[in-house]
Automatic annotation (TrEMBL):
Domain Rv2175c C-terminal: 66-119
Name of the protein: Rv2175c family DNA-binding protein
Alphabetical list of InterPro entries matching this protein: Rv2175c_C (IPR041098), Rv2175c_wHTH (IPR048576)
Domain of life: Bacteria
Assigned keywords, A-Z: DNA-binding
Pfam families with a match to the protein in the record: Rv2175c_C, Rv2175c_wHTH
Source organism (scientific name): Plantactinospora sonchi
DNA-binding protein Rv2175c wHTH domain: residues covered: 16-58
Keyword Cytoplasm in record: no
Keyword Transmembrane among record annotations: no
A GO molecular-function descriptor: DNA binding
Length: 121
């Protein structure tokens, strides 16, 4: 984390959640392909109320955010669980500004990737 993030900062919630069948429909792939994407860390899914869901903004149009798979791999290699990776992606950081998840959709994505690399050291 950067120095600008207070120790007691709380992550924001994603704008919405997609159930896995909805992700499959949006990406125009089979549900088994969505499960494979989750296993391969191309997509992040967590359990909410007993159902695996994906933050809606991580599925842009008919694709997954471009840098998301690389960031998820970096975070996993640094020892982050899926829940911890979700928290990292949605923790406000005024130096971005916003959250790393917000930044994945624009020119700040490379900075998010750099910060994810730094978590392993």
């Amino acid at each position: 984390m950067t120095e600008s993030v207070p120790a007691d900062a709380q992550p924001t919630e994603p704008t919405g959640w997609l159930a896995l069948p909805d992700v499959a429909e949006r990406l125009e792939v089979s549900i088994s392909k969505v499960h494979q994407m989750i296993r391969d860390r191309e997509l992040l899914a967590v359990r909410r109320d007993g159902v695996r869901v994906v933050p809606a903004e991580l599925v842009a149009n008919q694709t997954v955010r471009k840098h998301l798979p690389g960031i998820l791999t970096l975070l996993h290699d640094a020892g982050y669980s899926d829940e911890a990776a979700l928290r990292w992606l949605y923790l406000p950081d005024e130096t971005l500004p916003g959250t790393p998840a917000d930044a994945l959709g624009d020119h700040r994505a490379r900075e998010v990737k750099r910060r994810a690399q730094a978590t392993g050291f």
